[in-house]
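Hi R.,

Here's the chain you asked about this morning:
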Amino acid sequence: MGRSYADRRIPRRPLLNLLSPAGIPRDMLNAAVIEPLAESLAPEAAAAQDTALAQSAAGGDVQAFEALYRRHAARVHGVIQRLVGLHGVRAEDLTQEAFVRAWQALPAFRFESAFGTWLHRLAVNTALMELRGRRAGPRFDEEEGALDGLGLADSAGQTTALSMDLERAVATLPPRARAVLVLYDVEGWKHEEIAAELGMAVGSSKAQLHRARQLLRERLGAHA
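And the predicted structure, written out as tokens:
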């Protein structure tokens, strides 16, 4: 007899401790961030593998879900990190939360879109829930050292200074301006979607985008 949605509890043998109370080990998350999905597969082949793994995971296959985690953790962590402002520990916690939500929601996933697209949107929504929650509480302080070592490796293995400076500058933006910038310029959302998700008027979304771009130009120019 198959397991029901309500029976999807913590696996007895969580190889990655993915759904355990202790959460995802930080060294595992860091490894996932620096070991991207194998680029040897064509996009169509990678999407087909994702679909097969997701179908197995929807039926309760923990190892299939762990494989999906290894394939997508870097991208999920990246978008969450940009949206919440590079609060390192919090971004890791939210990445764990996004994958737990994905595990719980998979039985209802209808495969009308690619698994990666569905997971990415779920990750964005997880970060947006965090940002909406911050509006009711004190502003987060920048974590000491949260920006240290940030950068993207180029084909020669060297840190790309421009990318690092851009990431740092985005991280220093006010939360709402940063969220609008990332959602509009990086994620490709429309202002109507952003306004609905962040609880603001469309005009306010456009104003925040203008503000974010202006602040970025100022901060990048100051470090030129």
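The chain has two domains: 1-144, 157-224.

Let me know if you need anything else.
M.
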